[in-house]
Amino acid sequence: MIIGTQENIEAVTFQLGEGMEELALRYEEAIKRLDTSEGVLFVTDLFGGSPYNAASLISINHENMDIITGANLPMVIKAATARKTLDLKEVIRASEVSGKDGIKQFKENFSLVEEEEL
Fold first, then answer.
1. C-alpha dihedral over 53, 42, 25, 46, to 10 degrees?
2. With bands split at pLDDT 50, 70 and 90, how would you rate the model's confidence at 49?
3. Domain annotation covers residue 14
4. How far is 98 from 118, CA to CA, in rounded Å?
5. What's the confidence (pLDDT) of residue 78?
6. For the chain, how many structural domains are there in total?
7. For residue 95, what are the contacts with CB-CB under 8 A and spacing of at least 6?
8. Long-range CB contacts (< 8 A, 24+ apart) of 3-7?
9. Cβ count within 10 A of residue 81
10. Is residue 24 part of a domain?
């Protein structure tokens, strides 16, 4: 909705009761449907969680695959838009910065706006 329809992206959802090996197989099936010539970036929620661990089983053996964790919307938007012009390492760095910058605490930021208006 924010950046429009994206091509060459697959969402693989971790299912309740699914094992890491099963998820890794579903990742591999998704990868087969994609153009991976520019690399593969797995975006997962938690470092060390099952989606991350399944992705690590695959990416550890491929130079052009990596994982970024702590997914949030600013990170995903940056990854989706930056991949058109940046290489995999640059996409990861830009996504990481965007994800961190997207974390804000309302009252802290609200008080900064009030101080600036004075």
1. 30
2. very high
3. no
4. 29
5. 97
6. 1
7. 41, 43, 68, 75, 76, 78, 79, 82
8. 3/77, 3/80, 3/81, 6/80
9. 17
10. yes
The answer to whether 99 and 70 have CB atoms below 8 angstroms apart is: yes
Chain center to CA of 78: 9
CATH code of the domain in which 27 resides: 3.40.50.510
H-helix segments, the chain: 20-32, 50-59, 73-82, 88-101, 106-117
Tokens 């975006």 sit on residue: 43
In the structure, what pLDDT confidence band is assigned to residue 45 with cuts at 50, 70 and 90?
very high
Residue 73 lies in a domain: yes
Q: Which domain holds residue 39?
A: 20-117
Task: Report the C-alpha gap between 99 and 95 in whole angstroms.
Answer: 6
